[in-house]
Amino acid sequence: MRASNQGHPDPRIIREAAEWFINLQGADSREQQEAFADWLRRSPVHVEEFLQLAALHGDLARLPELQDLDVDAHPGAHGNGLDLPSADGNNIISVAFGSAVEPSDLNSGVRPNDELVEAPVAAAARQRGRRSLRLGFALAAAIGLMMLGGWFAGPGRDFFGKQHYRTGIGEERSLTLADGSRVELNARSTLSAMVNASVRDLRLNDGEALFRVAKDAAHPFRVHTPEATIEAKGTQFNVHVSNGATVVSLLEGHVLVTPPAAAPVLLNPGEQVAIARNDRTPPKPRHADVQTAIAWTEHRLVFEDEPLSEVIAEFNRYSLQPFIIGDPALRDVRITGSFDSGSAQTFADTLAIAGGLRVTLQKSGTYLIESK
């Protein structure tokens, strides 16, 4: 579990992790739980060392079951993340340590509801169950921080082996996946990927990416978005997710685009399909200039008769000086043009000169768009 780039662990951190492991076996107070959560938040190394110690002690024997955790029960999902889930709910503690006995007891056949268990044994099992529940809280906090806080067992890799990528404003990244596929990830995009010898499964929750898929007929390459699933085996296609819609543009090969409640759509090279989240109309492919769709890879943004509101939303993915529409009546002004995504001032000048708008740089660093 320990990341290879961590080097030799700090003996002080190992000692602190051991002290927390011992203390939490009798921790009933909220104050102690809060202190433990604060200690975890200080560093991913704290999380990792605590999990290492727990694994050595055997309290992670049932770790695979944690893959079905309820995210709402993770630390950090509710306020300060210190509300213990109820033992009878479908949550992180009931899944991992919901039994009234320790994991070792499960292998020996001891059950709290077993009529053959005598009272002294059952009482001892309940006591061990309380200790296990406390350790369950500790492990839940540690694992939850790893999953929700972006702390991984390796660079960009989560607890279960899925790669996560995120780009900021104006940032673009080139990725090479384990199967040899390449991904160009646009600014302000979020992508996760599980790619190995047996599966090629990705999710683009927001933003845009150009996929160059390595050929592998036995393992389809699937990209999931909030609105659709795109399946390919060896091809190039662009996916844009924004404002409750997914737009897929195909450069070469074939892809199958499947909305959640409609028949799949097969795209041919040079075709594009748009799927809106709330649109129940069956999507239809259309011919499109796909080179325009991927102009962003050359730092160009091309719009053809697009409303100003969407143009601004797209340009703000690249600009540290965001544009704001001051007059709501301007939101539907149509814009056609090609712009340098890296120059906010040039964009502002073009809107002012060609669009007949007043664009003013505010003291806050934002550009305000108004009617002249």
Number of distinct helices: 9
The average pLDDT value, as a whole number, equals 75
The poorly predicted ranges are 1-7, 59-129, 147-155
Q: What fraction of residues sit in β-strands?
A: 25-35%
What's the domain count?
A: 3
Radius of gyration: 26 Å
Shape: globular
Q: What proportion of the residues is helical, as a percent range?
A: 25-40%
The biggest sheet amounts to: 13 strands, mixed
Number of strands: 18
Give the N-to-C terminal Cα separation: 61 Å
**Structural class by sheet pairing and helices:** alpha+beta
- SSE arrangement, N to C: HHHHHHEEEEEEEEEEEEEHEHEEHEE
Would you mind describing this structure in some detail?
The chain has 372 residues and is an alpha+beta fold. It has 3 domains: 145 residues, no CATH class; 130 residues, Sandwich (Jelly Rolls); 73 residues, Phage tail protein beta-alpha-beta fold. It contains 9 helices and 18 strands. Strands 1, 2, 3, 4, 5, 6, 7, 8, 9, 10, 11, 12 and 13 form a 13-stranded mixed β-sheet that branches. Strands 15-18-17 form a 3-stranded mixed β-sheet. The longest helix is centred in the middle third of the chain and has 30 residues. It is globular.
